[in-house]
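Methods: example folding runs. The two proteins below were folded one after another, and each record is reproduced exactly as written to the output file, sequence line first and structure-token line second.
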Amino acid sequence: MPTLDLALPLHAHDTPHDTLLQALLQTRARSVALVAGLSDADCTVQSMPEASPAKWHLAHTTWFFEEFILTPHLPGYRVFDPAFRYLFNSYYDTVGPRHPRPQRGLLTRPTLEQILAYRAQVDAALPKLPPGTVPTALLDLGLHHEQQHQELLLTDLLHLFAQNPLHPAYRAAPAPMPAAQNPEPLRWVSFPGGLTGIGHAGEGFAFDNEGPRHRVWLDDYALAHRAVSNAEWLDFIADDGYATPTLWLADGWRWVQEQNIRAPAYWQAHDDGFHTQAMTLHGLQPLLPQAPVSHISFYEADAYARWSGARLPTEFEWEAAARRQPAPAARPSQFADHPWRLPLPAEDAHENGLQDLWGGVWEWTASAYLPYPGFRPAPGAVGEYNGKFMSGQMVLRGGSCATPPGHIRATYRNFFYPHQRWQFTGLRLARG
């Protein structure tokens, strides 16, 4: 079994053991609630190698607690099934071999019922951990790891259901869609440059890739007050944005041609080629002109920015601007309180600030996903969590309508490969 260096480069809330365990169990209960009403088949099928079945997400997050917390720290704990160590390891090479990721959808066994029983055993064991035997940082990491997989579970289900010509809904639409209207005119919000602190400052939880805190120089710049809308993306399409090679990076142009990309993922075109609907977690829904465009790749975001005469912000510009806005903890979470599971027009306009910065769509930045100066991954298996992926990917900031409560903050660094777009990904323009 791998050993963990418990001096993790993470920061957890100064939370009493029982309070943290309660929050952890509430988070895990939310994962089970996400699959309520789904069939075993819904939770087993894998729609592409990058996605995972819902059943696998439920099992992998449970494996994390069994592998790293219960087995080493709870005397007498017996693993649910020794085979699960191979089946549900994700990418922890230190732990040992694992089932190939592209073949997760072939695991018709164990059943969903067995996975839920696995979760129940682990959930019953967690409160038995004696206070002080498990570092708070490790428990908090497990909680936030679970939240990450809640978002992935939803976006992977959306990709799965989008392959079905019946356009099934994950959940019924909770209300009629808002009326279609033109988006408000875009305006620019200016921010001063200078030497700026970037990264987690040490209060509350953060993943290791959010630090160390360091300083960067920013020139004066401006951000669009809102994300780019569907209406504006339709203008990009109408102006042959997908057919103009000078707008695209070389890799992006090759991707557009090879994959025959002509619109964001999940958009549905009529015979005349005009897009009026999109596949969502509520099934096929009208394409709202005023809603933020979603499910676009970095290549598309970069091409659109060039077409518009603007650019993508760096992740440092985005973070510096976000620190000047109301904190996400002070605002309602779409995940917890909003009945919709798709990006909707923003309701949080600020006269002189940025709109819908948190929890609408993840916003692509111009920054490659690289380590901050002085970054060192933790020794052992937990050190594989982020650091080894710092190559070939781009940073996104903000959060989406599928991001759980408590999982959005100004320093959060999400990252995906430039061509990927099954997440709720959009863009906000920058200039200066």
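Second run, written to the same file directly after the first:
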Amino acid sequence: MTPDASPDAASFVRDHTVYSCVMGSRAFGLATDGSDTDRRGVFVAPASLFWRFDKPPTHVEGPAEEQFSWELERFLKLALRANPNVLECLHSPLVEYADATGRELLALRDAFLSRAAHQTFVLYAVGQRKKLEADVRHHGAPRWKHAMHLLRLLIACRDLLRTGELVIDVGADRERLLQVKRGEVPWPRVEAWMARLAEEADAAAPGSPLPPEPDRARVADFLFRTRRASALQAYADHEVAQGLVGGGLVGQP
């Protein structure tokens, strides 16, 4: 590739993915016959592409339907900020692919978990609840599927703060949550459940076994080593190419 050539977005997912998993209802234990298969992944853009004016993308949608991937650095930054979607991606029970770098990323899962998740999960939940309440005001009912997933998120947040572990499969709460999705639970009861879960999360936060902050140093070291390995590979590939163009092997006089 010439220095000014730009690879298409799909090639980052196709050629440089280090981790991919299934998310959504299938990972949460809430799938039904009509559920989509949502895929999420992480790719590592070659280091040489960062040495250009036009940088690699921070994320890519597709190329398959319901597929979304982050470039490693963007993913790590979001995880360090306790972004709920990204943290849950690291804890999917349905891992489809992980190379050596992906496995090391999975081994770092605990480095991202901290009490900061309390605020980020709750703030996200508050935003989603306002949208549900607007639906009730304007249409007489919420989007029940969204209400179900908000309850699921609050359950995960409460249990994370209580135990220090993020488990995204709803387990025994499956049928109760699916009743919400089907609109079989009155909105006031759903509201009360949401309020109780938020209160339980607030109560668990002060004594949580989670550390106050994520382990940024461990994550930074992982990113540095990954980028360094990519840069060294780019240099080795360049040397090989130069040697072949010159009619000999690299290292020969």
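Comment on the second run: The domain at 9-112 is CATH 3.30.460.10 (Beta Polymerase; domain 2).
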